[in-house]
Design a protein that fits this description.
Layout (H helix, E strand, L loop, with lengths): L16 H12 L4 H8 L3 H10 L24
Helix pairs in contact: 2-3
Organism: Sphingomonas cynarae
Protein name: AsnC family protein
Protein backbone atom coordinates (compact mmCIF):
# COMPACT_ATOMS: atom_id res chain seq x y z
CA UNK A 1 0.00 0.00 0.00
CA UNK A 2 1.53 3.33 -1.00
CA UNK A 3 2.04 6.00 1.63
CA UNK A 4 -1.00 8.19 2.17
CA UNK A 5 -3.47 5.67 0.72
CA UNK A 6 -6.58 5.06 2.85
CA UNK A 7 -6.77 1.69 4.57
CA UNK A 8 -8.91 -0.97 2.90
CA UNK A 9 -12.46 -1.29 4.20
CA UNK A 10 -13.67 -4.49 5.73
CA UNK A 11 -16.70 -6.13 4.16
CA UNK A 12 -19.88 -5.67 6.21
CA UNK A 13 -20.65 -8.33 8.79
CA UNK A 14 -23.36 -10.74 7.69
CA UNK A 15 -26.73 -10.88 9.47
CA UNK A 16 -27.44 -14.23 11.10
CA UNK A 17 -30.88 -15.61 11.88
CA UNK A 18 -30.17 -14.85 15.55
CA UNK A 19 -29.33 -11.23 14.66
CA UNK A 20 -32.62 -10.94 12.75
CA UNK A 21 -34.56 -12.36 15.72
CA UNK A 22 -32.80 -9.97 18.09
CA UNK A 23 -33.60 -7.03 15.81
CA UNK A 24 -37.27 -8.04 15.64
CA UNK A 25 -37.48 -8.25 19.44
CA UNK A 26 -35.79 -4.90 19.97
CA UNK A 27 -38.07 -3.17 17.44
CA UNK A 28 -41.14 -4.79 19.03
CA UNK A 29 -39.92 -3.51 22.42
CA UNK A 30 -39.88 0.01 20.89
CA UNK A 31 -36.18 0.58 21.55
CA UNK A 32 -34.65 3.62 19.90
CA UNK A 33 -32.65 2.94 16.76
CA UNK A 34 -29.43 4.34 18.23
CA UNK A 35 -29.75 2.06 21.24
CA UNK A 36 -30.37 -0.95 19.01
CA UNK A 37 -27.32 -0.10 16.89
CA UNK A 38 -25.06 0.19 19.93
CA UNK A 39 -26.36 -3.01 21.51
CA UNK A 40 -25.93 -4.97 18.28
CA UNK A 41 -22.58 -3.36 17.39
CA UNK A 42 -23.96 -2.10 14.06
CA UNK A 43 -24.49 1.28 12.44
CA UNK A 44 -27.83 3.07 12.50
CA UNK A 45 -27.89 2.84 8.69
CA UNK A 46 -27.23 -0.89 8.98
CA UNK A 47 -30.18 -1.29 11.34
CA UNK A 48 -32.44 0.76 9.07
CA UNK A 49 -31.36 -1.20 6.01
CA UNK A 50 -31.88 -4.60 7.62
CA UNK A 51 -35.26 -3.54 9.02
CA UNK A 52 -36.29 -2.51 5.50
CA UNK A 53 -35.09 -5.82 4.08
CA UNK A 54 -37.12 -7.69 6.71
CA UNK A 55 -40.07 -5.33 6.14
CA UNK A 56 -40.06 -4.21 9.76
CA UNK A 57 -41.52 -0.84 10.58
CA UNK A 58 -39.34 1.37 12.75
CA UNK A 59 -40.86 4.03 14.98
CA UNK A 60 -40.87 7.50 13.47
CA UNK A 61 -38.60 10.18 14.91
CA UNK A 62 -41.44 12.63 15.48
CA UNK A 63 -44.09 10.11 16.46
CA UNK A 64 -42.42 7.08 18.06
CA UNK A 65 -45.75 5.68 19.25
CA UNK A 66 -46.91 5.06 15.67
CA UNK A 67 -46.62 1.41 14.78
CA UNK A 68 -49.13 0.48 12.09
CA UNK A 69 -50.39 2.94 9.59
CA UNK A 70 -50.88 5.80 11.99
CA UNK A 71 -53.09 4.19 14.60
CA UNK A 72 -53.03 6.28 17.77
CA UNK A 73 -53.08 4.52 21.15
CA UNK A 74 -56.21 4.92 23.29
CA UNK A 75 -56.49 8.25 25.04
CA UNK A 76 -54.07 10.11 22.74
CA UNK A 77 -56.45 11.60 20.18
Amino acid sequence: MPDGAPPARRPPRRWSDEDDDDLRLRIAARQQIGDIARAMNRTVDGIRGRAATLRLRLPGRNRPWRTNGGAVPDGQD
